Design the sequence.
DNA sequence: TCTATTTATAGCATATATGCTATAAGCAAT
DNA sequence: ATTGCTTATAGCATATATGCTATAAATAGA
């Protein structure tokens, strides 16, 4: 069984783009500051992949929001 | 770089056990109803692995909570 | 104690998340 | 139309999430 749900990943992608915009960061800013690769940030923001909760947590810390705010969509 | 953070995964594990207990489900109940393997549920609840957000979402739906509630710890 | 239930661990195979590098495509300004 | 910035895509290698099966350990009732 495959749990990747396109709609959920697209929703998450949109929420991340939104929060990153609020924080006025580029994908590269987020990548550099978080230590996550730029290609991975782009894949996440296009809903291409199913990130792990630790990746979410690192992104959240970089954006200075709580991890659960990234799932608030 | 590795983003797996032991403390975060342990915190998540504890939160999941807690919510599952509130819902009065066993690991096997959760596994069967969600379609996720029992071994995977056990690994998540012991903080051994770093689950994906789609796995979290499926678990949340099975527990009838919002995904962000699972990150509320 | 004994039994039944529940949780944890282990090994293996497969799918996929992630990093890296490079390239392309989009989008502002001018 | 071109330059510069930003986002998206692609291919490859590696690490790991997940399923499956079996077993062990812990826990709870009687």
Sequence:
């Amino acid at each position: 069984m495959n749990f990747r749900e396109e709609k959920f990943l697209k929703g998450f992608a949109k929420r991340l783009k939104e929060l990153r915009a609020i924080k006025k960061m580029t994908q590269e800013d987020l990548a550099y500051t978080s230590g996550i690769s730029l290609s991975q940030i782009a894949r996440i923001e296009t809903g291409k992949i199913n990130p792990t909760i630790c990746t979410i947590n690192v992104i959240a810390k970089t954006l200075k929001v709580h991890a659960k705010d990234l799932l608030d969509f």
